[in-house]
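hiii so um. not sure if this is the right channel but i have a protein structure encoded as C-alpha cells and i wanna go backwards to a sequence. like what aa goes where. can anyone help
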C-alpha cells in the first residue's frame, strides 16, 4: 500500500499549523529541531492561516490518496498527508531515529506520549475553556477557576506521579530518559508539555519542583532543554512565544497559591 519508503525519505517534511502560537505544532517542531531535520514550517509564512483553513474546510474531501483532515497540525511528506498529533509522532519517530519502527516499544512509547498529552496539554487547555472552546475565556472565568483549582491540586500531581513512576521503572533505564535508556520522542513531548504547563501555572509547577517528589521529571526537563540542538532552537527566533493558544497564563487561575 502507498509509495515505497525509499521514495518518501528524499522529500522534505512540511508542517502546517497556526501562526503565532506554539500549540500542538510545537511538539512536532522539537522532533525536527533535535534531529537537525530540514522542514518547511508553513506557520512562518504569510499564507499560514489559509493553509490551515484549506485542510479543515468542509468542502475539502481529500484526494485519491488521502482522506480529508479535521484540524491542524497537518504533516505533509511527499504524497502522504496526515493529521492528529499522536499519529504524526508515530510516523516521524522511527524515521528521525527517535523511536523503534516495530515491536513492543512502538506501543509503549505511544501510551506514554498519549498520557502526557492528555495531562499536560488537553487538560491544561480545559482549565481556561472548561465550558466550550467556542466561547471566550471571559465568559467562563468562574468555571475556569473551579477547573484550574482541581487541575492544580488533583490532576497535575496525578500526572506528575505517573511520569515519575515511568522514570523509576526498570524499562526506563539508567540514564534518566523515559524509555529504553536513551532519548526518544516521548522525552521531547514531555519537555514541551511541561514547559507549557509551567508557563500557564508557574507558581504551581515551581511548588511541585520544590517539593522534591518529582526530581526525575524536572531533571529530564532540564536535560532536554540543554541538548545542543534544542538549546539553540529555544534561543532562536524560530521558537514561537506563548500567547493565546493551548498554554495560557491567567494569574487569577492560581491566585490562591501561596
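sure thing!! here u go:
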Amino acid at each position: 500500500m502507498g509509495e515505497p519508503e525509499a521514495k518518501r525519505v528524499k522529500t522534505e517534511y512540511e508542517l502546517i499549523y497556526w501562526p503565532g502560537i506554539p500549540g500542538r505544532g510545537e511538539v512536532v517542531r522539537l522532533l525536527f529541531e533535535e534531529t537537525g531535520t530540514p522542514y518547511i514550517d508553513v506557520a512562518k509564512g504569510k499564507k499560514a492561516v489559509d493553509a490551515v483553513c484549506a485542510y479543515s474546510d468542509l468542502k475539502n474531501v481529500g484526494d485519491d490518496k488521502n482522506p480529508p483532515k479535521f484540524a491542524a497540525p497537518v504533516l505533509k511528506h511527499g504524497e502522504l498527508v496526515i493529521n492528529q498529533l499522536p499519529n504524526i509522532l508515530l510516523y516521524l519517530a522511527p524515521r528521525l531515529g527517535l523511536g523503534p519502527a516495530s515491536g513492543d516499544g512502538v506501543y509503549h512509547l505511544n501510551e506514554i506520549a498519549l498520557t502526557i498529552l492528555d495531562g499536560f496539554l488537553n487538560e491544561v487547555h480545559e482549565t481556561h475553556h472548561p465550558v466550550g472552546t467556542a466561547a471566550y475565556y471571559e465568559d467562563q472565568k468562574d468555571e475556569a477557576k473551579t477547573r484550574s483549582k482541581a487541575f492544580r491540586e488533583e490532576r497535575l500531581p496525578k500526572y506528575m506521579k505517573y511520569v515519575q513512576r515511568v522514570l523509576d521503572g526498570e524499562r526506563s533505564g539508567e540514564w534518566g530518559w523515559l524509555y529504553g535508556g536513551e532519548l526518544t520522542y516521548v522525552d521531547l513531548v514531555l519537555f514541551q508539555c511541561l514547559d507549557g504547563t509551567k508557563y500557564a501555572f508557574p507558581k504551581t509547577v515551581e511548588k511541585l519542583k520544590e517539593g522534591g517528589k518529582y526530581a526525575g521529571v524536572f531533571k529530564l526537563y532540564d536535560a532536554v532543554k540543554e541538548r545542543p540542538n534544542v538549546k539553540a532552537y529555544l534561543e532562536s527566533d524560530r521558537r514561537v512565544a506563548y500567547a493565546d493558544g493551548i498554554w495560557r497564563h491567567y494569574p487569577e487561575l492560581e491566585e490562591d497559591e501561596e
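oh and The first strand starts at residue 13 and ends at 16.
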